[in-house]
Design goal:
The chain is mainly alpha-helical. Helices cover 66% and strands 0% of the residues. Residues 145-196 form the RNA polymerase sigma factor 70 region 4 type domain.
Length: 221
Amino acid sequence: MSENPPEQELTDVVEPTSEVDLDAETPQERAARFERDAMPLLDQLYAGALRMTHNAADAEDLVQDTYAKAFSSFHQFKPGTNLRAWMYRILTNNFINNYRKAQRRPQESSSEGIEDWQLYAAEQHTSTGLRSAEMEALDSLPDDDIKRALSDLPEDFRLAVYLADVEGFAYKEIAEMMNTPIGTVMSRLHRGRKALQVSLADYARDRGILPADSGKEAVRS
């Protein structure tokens, strides 16, 4: 067993990544650095791809293409900066470009990852005007209703909501990933959240979870 304290072991792993001499780095060293730093993000990227595509096979293809492009341009990544955001930008750009080229929306739904969205549905966004009791009522909706409400969001809105509220990226990072101005990201996020909560409130009223006239004006304002 190593006698080094945990803090020292962590330092030994992290510090060399931010001190790489890119000009002197050999292809073999770059490949090893990519495997060490980028491959641990594989599961996160696959989960993100699955939520974007709603299809396991498409998600696998998207991740494979993302890693291939990331590897070929890894010499452009600045060590010590946010590798996760850099990888997600490639993933998101690939998805947007492939989706627009195909001019279709993935139809197959996945049951994985619904827990993140249930947490989001239960979260209180004070700007929406929904009362806390109503947010708790929305949290009791069946998973199928939550999935349906998410699937009904326009693609750009759904991506913005996912990247911000599930992955926790900042506006600037999302703007770079989606290749749009920050103001556009903020607008899509605001409208996406609002549309999602309108849909969830409608489902809740249909199921009798909320009174028929509960929160309509507040949510739609």
